[in-house]
Amino acid sequence: MPSVSVLLLRACLALLASPIYLLAFLGIWEPFCRKVFFPFLLDKICVTHDKKSKKHKQELFRNLPDFRGPSGQLRLLEIGTGAGSNFQFYPAGCRVTCTDINPNFQQSLSKNMKKNQHLQYEQFLVAAAEDLGQVPSGSVDAVVCTLVLCSVHSVSSTLREVLRVLRPGGAFYFLEHVAAEHSSWRYFWQQVCYPTWKLVFAGCCLTRELWKNLEEAKFSELKIQHISVAMPWMPIEPHIVGYGVK
């Protein structure tokens, strides 16, 4: 149960964001957020986050070629592709299937596809991370998911789908923001911001301990590193980065 001070500050933040809460109550906010506000906001935030996380992504994706299939090609599925900011890190000739529950990133996605013509783009699927039924079981060599597990409805269901679509020996790559240490001021502010942040940022949860979900999933090998990606005025500094092998 959150402390009284957390609840009081939550109420103050909700008061400041009361127009958004009103629009949500009227059923206007969610469609507007998905179609206009969130793609616009994410595009701006990603510019900063990409700069801060670039070295971590370069290191993370460095061994992607090691997971090429028997044919010599790398078949990669990205969950929550968004604007396609990860394309620059994928090896030449990689065959990429993009998925996202929100189809409203077309402009930025097309721009990044044109900038990264070293890749082969297979298809774009509008699909929730928990239901990748359009992707055959065991059909991909690698699955990538960055800043997505914070907002899926079920992390465990998403990881089950990841393991289903991966071939044996394939790898799941992730970079996600997570809950801070419970005794820290950062975690206090994550708790304060939680309800309003989740509403404004299309379901993004600030306090998920995603490393626990990954440890519980049935990966034969799992490498997780806790890192810091400092974002100005945003409560998402603690991150985890790594990969798991099926």
UniProtKB/TrEMBL annotation:
Entry's Gene Ontology molecular function annotations: S-adenosylmethionine-dependent methyltransferase activity
Gene3D superfamilies according to UniProt: Vaccinia Virus protein VP39 (3.40.50.150)
Protein origin, superkingdom: Eukaryota
InterPro entries (alphabetical): Methyltransf_11, SAM-dependent_MTases_sf, Thiol_S-MT
Domain Methyltransferase type: 77-174
Pfam family, one: Methyltransf_11
UniProt-listed SUPFAM superfamilies: S-adenosyl-L-methionine-dependent methyltransferases
Name of the protein this chain belongs to: MET7A protein
Organism: Sitta europaea (Eurasian nuthatch)
